[in-house]
Amino acid sequence: MITGTTRLIAHLGYPTGSFKAPMIYNPYFEREGIDAVVVPMGCGAEDYPAFLRLVFRLSNSLGALVTMPHKVTTAGLVDTLLPTAAIAGACNAVRREPDGGLTGEMFDGEGFVRGLLRKGRPVAGRRALVLGAGGVGSAIAASLAKAGVGALGLYDIDAAAAEALALRLARFHPALGLSLGSNDPAGFDIVVNATPLGMRPGDPLPLDVARLDAASFVGEVVMAEEITPFLAAARSRGCAVQVGKDMLFEQIPAYLEFFGLPSTTAEDLRSVARLD
Amino acid sequence: MITGTTRLIAHLGYPTGSFKAPMIYNPYFEREGIDAVVVPMGCGAEDYPAFLRLVFRLSNSLGALVTMPHKVTTAGLVDTLLPTAAIAGACNAVRREPDGGLTGEMFDGEGFVRGLLRKGRPVAGRRALVLGAGGVGSAIAASLAKAGVGALGLYDIDAAAAEALALRLARFHPALGLSLGSNDPAGFDIVVNATPLGMRPGDPLPLDVARLDAASFVGEVVMAEEITPFLAAARSRGCAVQVGKDMLFEQIPAYLEFFGLPSTTAEDLRSVARLD
């Protein structure tokens, strides 16, 4: 129950209608007796820079979950950008430090990597291919790099976007082997679709599935359906897969840790969420 | 449960620790299936003017409950000040109009008057004495005037404060009979203590109780204890009384109406509140 001592996690985005975080975090906070609440705040782009500053000056503010259309803007508004957010060029979480400064981080990719690790798939030293160098692809590439992949292939139909991502990655991970310009999955241990392909019926697959090794682990960010055509094709090749929604739930423990709150497993959060 | 469609009532003040409104409104909203939530926001005075504007630009904002130390400031920040708030010189509620403008109102006095009416005590045409011309005294005087009292006595140890209140009242209620300079309750149908006297043990009584008529109705704003020494003395004179907390609960239906929400009785709100 909300009282005068409850700390706020502002869920900032616009529009708010499809927000899911309140129904995931708040039931967990309630069960655990954590005196915090996620509150959707439909903030437009023109008000966002000023509002972000002011909402963090509230005496009971704890943090912010940032979503569309503010993720990229936020990277330019915080005082400290952690490396993963700097590589992604976007933030989906902000907290206030004891000195009043704002720190931004990006957990989309962290959710992807945690999902892999929890499924018993090692990441350190492995070879990963990320298709799509937009916001979520950049975040996944950044988190794979942080988790210690040995080699990273980047591909985007906009070659300049992939090149820009490679430059950002190289700045923070100078020893990482980067390759560009191919969506051929052969030889990669981890293959991720972070393109929008699969969101609409009739979309082409993001790569030539016939080139997928059965030993490759295949992940997806599209959540339009649990098993997208791409994941179905990868499964039929014998690959283990990770669905888009896993990334969503796997990142929440990372957010909780970032905010200094007691954390739990993604499975536990999923079991207590009230998404229906 | 809070979702992406939930509308926000910002509870603005500082500090927030003693806020009670969330535990009164939110259980009622939950029981009634009203998709709204009262959220405490500890906003400091220096941030308040900018924050008030921005919080009302959120797409899901519904209104604001305003408390210490912002009630007087708010009167200077809204676009439209309703007469009761103008007389009180303070607002404790703000809503956004369809044109985007902010309207401010003051319900402390409304709660007092509603409490009287619900106890079967008529107000229209009666003679009332208000002791204390500060924020809450001014609000009660304004609401008594709006409710049609025939004559109003005002008293404050700071005579200038009572005179200023009289001028504000006269502007909106030119026909109202006003008297100043005496705290003698003899001849008044309604007598209100809106001074701080009674908040601390050993405070003197705000008037000479021996001059109270048994037929007078005596009200109190101090909530330090249910029956203050002043109310106890009035009762021993045979007077019917209204305790401070009644004012608190009686004003909530007025807030709900102001925000365009389904309303109920103060008793019902009290029964569903979770204040323990």
List keywords for this structure.
Rossmann fold, about 280 residues, alpha/beta, homodimer, 2 domains, six-stranded parallel β-sheet, six-stranded mixed β-sheet
Description:
With about 280 residues, chain A is an alpha/beta fold. The first copy, chain A, folds into 2 domains: about 120 residues, Leucine Dehydrogenase, chain A, domain 1 (Rossmann fold), CATH 3.40.50.10860; about 130 residues, NAD(P)-binding Rossmann-like Domain (Rossmann fold). Helices cover about 35% and strands about 20% of the residues of chain A. The first copy, chain A, contains 10 helices and 12 strands. In chain A, the strands form 2 sheets. Chain A has a 6-stranded mixed sheet. In chain A, helix 5 crosses helix 6, helix 5 crosses helix 9 and helix 9 crosses helix 10. The longest helix of chain A is centred in the last third of the chain and has 15 residues. Chain A is globular and about 60 Å long. At the A-B interface, helix 1, strand 2 and helix 2 of A face helix 1, strand 2 and helix 2 of B. Chains A, B: InterPro entries: Aminoacid_DH-like_N_sf (IPR046346), NAD(P)-bd_dom_sf (IPR036291), Shikimate_DH-bd_N (IPR013708), Shikimate_DH_fam (IPR022893), ThiF_NAD_FAD-bd (IPR000594). Chains A, B: Pfam families: Shikimate_dh_N, ThiF. Chains A, B: Pathway: Metabolic intermediate biosynthesis; chorismate biosynthesis; chorismate from D-erythrose 4-phosphate and phosphoenolpyruvate: step 4/7. Chains A, B: This is Shikimate dehydrogenase family protein.
